[in-house]
Task: structure prediction
Amino acid sequence: MGAISGQGVIAGILATGIRLAAPFLFASLGEMFAQRSGVFNLGLEGIMMMGAFAGFMTSLGTGSPWLGVLAAIGVGAALGLLMAFISVTMQAEQGISGIGLHMFCWGLSGLLFRVYLGFITSCKGFGPWNIPVLSHIPVLGPILFQHNWMVYFSLLLVPVSWFVLYRTTWGLKVRAVGTTPQAADTLGVNVNAIRYQCVILGGAMAGLAGAFLTVGQANMYADNITAGRGFIAVALVYFGRWSPVGILLGSLLFSMMNALQLWIQVLGISFPYEFAVIMPYVMTIAALAVAVRRVWAPTALGKPFRREAG
Result:
């Protein structure tokens, strides 16, 4: 391991893992609300890609990563609105609609990148925010308290999402719409309105996840910068059993495995490169296979709502 101590390596892996978990938390928590309401959005990967592009181009053009984040959220919300219209109003098959949205966003982001830029360059992004006093704590400081604000915000969204889902009237409506939409409708809940709100929220958070990749991490944009993270985020919703805490655990598991393979390469450990790269995905698939055996899904997930006559 050279000059790096074992303690330093472990701290580095943990800090990297926490940082890498941020986009998964943003996207998965948003998708959790969409699926809890009964809408399955497989277009998450494409929305993240468009969010990444919008965040990058806005930051590049204005010099403000904050405006980049707002642009990414706006683009994500607009694409969420499109997905809601297709799946809720038009009642199209949700899986196919999501894949179609992904392909549309994938092609559009690539086209716009080539038309308006055509080369890779850097944009202004967010640097780390070392929390006073806490960031100087031995070992724990570098692991937990030396990240940029987006990482802290992604972690904060876990308890916030839990509170909204389980302790608010709106959260109760979301859960009712995703399990017994007919009963919810009978009680006066506007099923389609709730689903629209959740899918738009999911799109906005996917856009935020994309912005993290460009203005919160890489400070640049490249084709396929999302690298399948949107699809992993969908899988993490299942792994986490539609629970914010479960999603946090799943996101950290995948990200820590990813951080481990990155550090294996950095340290020059004699280990097959190809195996190191696929290791996080193999471990996630294995964990997902075990988790879904006892999984409970919202009973109305993927089913369009049709009001009963009478």
